[in-house]
Amino acid sequence: MNTPSISNPASRTSMDSAPHNAGFQPADRNAGFQPASVREARPQPADRNAGFQPAPLLRLLTAAASVLLLGGGCGYAQGELAYMLGFGRGKLVEAEFTLTEEPILILVDDYAARVDWPPARHYLVDELGQELIKKGAAKKIIPRQRLQQIRQTEANFEKRGVREIGELAGAEQVMWIEVQDFAANPQFDNTLDAAYYSVTVKIINVLEKERRSRVRVWPTSPSGQAVTVSMTGSEVALAKTKDAISKQLAEELAVEIAKPFYKRRLGDFEKE
């Protein structure tokens, strides 16, 4: 819409000071009249939608909703439709580190006693061993019962280093997991992170005895690879017991810990 022009105040003052009838001439109604064909066209308001392009994710979600609503009679299962729309076809990424085909010891170290439910450590060892085997990341996992035997028979077990413990267990590599934080209480305060299991992961070369700098073969960071999983308040409420919460956390953590060690496709919303 055009903004109406405002007359110059000075001009208005000079006109007001003149006699009302001085030089009065009736205005010619047709003066300056131009037919519509030659008059300047009135500017049209800008089209707010001109050039608008919806965000790629919005377009994808809109298309997905349309296809799912209309596809019921087209013979497609929802999984097939999701695949056609691009879901489940993330980028294929190589393993960050290739584990040995020889025996691997999974050692969960809770030096600060943060895990107040001991089975949670056992669950993690068992679940992680199964996940590594299932994904083809490892061939042989030393049973955690073997570590328990060594702990009972070795008088100075607590003073031994990780590499030495791995050697006693007959491992070529140790997946050393240090617990950083843990909470698995049925009663919670934070509904977003009502329960959680946080660790750091390192791979230790048991065969390296000479150069200490080469004992840790993954990751490059001395502090290790941080991995954390959590459960919402609703998930904790469904699990109900501390044991069930601990087991679910261990299962999810095992999946996340294993990911860097095998070739896989990224999730739909997962970054490389």
Key phrases:
two-stranded antiparallel ribbon; globular; 8 helices; disordered N terminus; 15% strand; alpha+beta; 272 residues
Task: Walk me through this protein's architecture.
22% of the residues are buried. The strands form two sheets. Strands 2, 3, 4, 5 and 6 form a five-stranded mixed sheet that branches. Strands 1-7 form a two-stranded antiparallel sheet. It has 272 residues and is an alpha+beta fold. The chain is 33% helix and 15% strand. Mean pLDDT is 79; it is low at 1-27 and 29-46. The chain is built from eight helices and seven strands.
Give a topology summary.
Blueprint (H helix, E strand, L loop, with lengths): L8 H9 L38 H15 L7 H7 L7 E2 L10 E6 L9 H16 L9 H10 L8 H8 L3 E11 L11 E11 L10 E3 L6 E7 L1 H7 L2 H17 L5 E2 L7
Parallel strand pairs: 2-3
Antiparallel strand pairs: 1-7, 3-4, 4-5, 4-6
Q: Main sheet, how many strands, which sense, barrel?
A: 5 strands, mixed
Structural class estimated from helices and strands: alpha+beta
Number of strands: 7
The number of distinct helices, counting runs of at least 4 residues, comes to 8
- SSE order: HHHEEHHHEEEEHHE
The amount of beta strand, in percent, is 15-25%
Task: Report the principal-axis shape.
Answer: globular
| Rounded mean pLDDT score | 79
Radius of gyration, whole Å? 36 Å
Model regions low in confidence, pLDDT < 50 over at least 5 residues: 1-27, 29-46
**Straight-line distance between termini:** 50 Å
Fraction of residues in helix: 25-40%
